Amino acid sequence: MAVLGIDIGGSGIKGNLVDPFTGNLESDRYKIATPQPSTPDAVADVIVEMIDHFEYRGPVGCTFPAIVRRGVTLSAANVDESWIGTNAEQVFEKHSPGNDFTMLNDADAAGIAEVEFGAAKDRKGVVIMITFGTGIGSGLFVDGTLVPNTELGHLHYEDHAPVEDWAAAKVKKEEGLSWKEWAERAGVYLNHLDRLFSPDLFVFGGGVSRRWKRIGPNLGLDAEIVPAQFENEAGIVGAAMAATRR
């Protein structure tokens, strides 16, 4: 049975039906702009619209750009601050009766997909998934086991606090950087993570992973790094997988 995976971001909310046992997408992706302000009730209305679009009933996996613990969102870096301390699963289930929701951090979800079916399949040791978008997300895995909610984009690096304000993908457009200039900046950040965690593999994710040929050679990274196989769909796939496992 296909399961609905939804990826909630600071600028867009996208979803698709996923075969959680293969990672295959079963339909065309559907995307809606994130409402502004992105309050829990406003986002919940978009989730209902997403579910209605797919005429879906069943378990729903949802990613969220925040620390998520047992369905409760505990931070809100790129969404409305009213999410802090909100039981997101209960809010969504109230708006969409009959559907069971599983919430998890967005980069954790992307990493689940890449470790199970994608670029990090069968890789042992420490794997770090980094997603570059409106912010920077991270998923940390040890021998395939997730260490949740690492949020390494919120680290402080030199005078950048947090580092995602300096190296997230949105900064390229905001500061008019070339791909080479932005990739060099992202590489400085990744080399910092390499010194802290000594991972066996980095997986480079987010929408900009589609530009890997322009980015990869300019990162200046000694550690092994590969582009995400699912590109910007990894969160959707991982969310569906998480809902199935639950």
What does this structure look like?
- The protein has 246 residues and is an alpha/beta fold.
- The chain has two domains: 3-108 and 234-245, ATPase, nucleotide binding domain (Nucleotidyltransferase, domain 5), CATH 3.30.420; 122-228, ATPase, nucleotide binding domain (Nucleotidyltransferase, domain 5, 2-Layer Sandwich), CATH 3.30.420.
- The protein has eight helices and 13 strands.
- The chain has helices spanning 40-54, 88-95, 106-116, 164-167, 169-175, 179-197, 212-215, 234-245; strands at 3-8, 12-18, 30-33, 59-64, 68-69, 72-73, 86-87, 100-105, 126-132, 136-142, 145-147, 201-205, 225-227.
- The strands form three sheets. Strands 3-2-1-4-8 form a five-stranded mixed beta sheet. A five-stranded mixed beta sheet has the order 11-10-9-12-13, covered by helices on one side. The chain has a three-stranded antiparallel beta sheet with strand order 5-6-7.
- Strand 10 and strand 11 form a beta hairpin.
- Helix 1 crosses helix 2 and helix 3 crosses helix 8 (234-245).
- The protein is globular, with a radius of gyration of 17 Å.
- The two termini are 15 Å apart.
- The mean pLDDT is 96.
